[in-house]
Amino acid sequence: MNPFLRHTVAALAFRFRKAVKDAPPGFGDVSAGAGARTATQTVAHMGDLFDWALSHCDGAGTWHEAVPQGWDAECARFLATLEAFDKRLQSPLQCEPERLFQGPVADALTHVGQLGTLRRLAESPVGPKNYFKADIAAGTI
What we know:
Helices cover 57% and strands 0% of the residues. It is globular and about 45 Å long. It is mainly alpha-helical. It contains 4 helices and no strands. It has a single domain, classed as Four Helix Bundle (Hemerythrin (Met), subunit A). Helix 1 packs antiparallel against helix 3 (71-88) and helix 2 packs antiparallel against helix 4.
């Protein structure tokens, strides 16, 4: 069920892993400036997005903002929540999959791009990748 959405989630996971791989020490504290989220806060927000998405899948649509933990903990939480979301997509949904795409999924893709920008600001840019040729498959988180 929802093969395109599941493939998009796999692409999100792939891009996220690329953006955070070998991040320099202290990267979680990097931000684009005053009032902007740090990298850790950005990843925590991404985890919140998929907690919210899971809630929508079950017909509730409840938002909860978690208190950000450390960089490693938030990266692990995001991937665990994304994996739970991917598994949930294999069952009937209590909302339209298009809404899940236009809301939390698209938002998270934007935030992965922000992490890439923060890597440049931290003088540790993410290397190039041909995402068209990348080995990405639904169910791979």
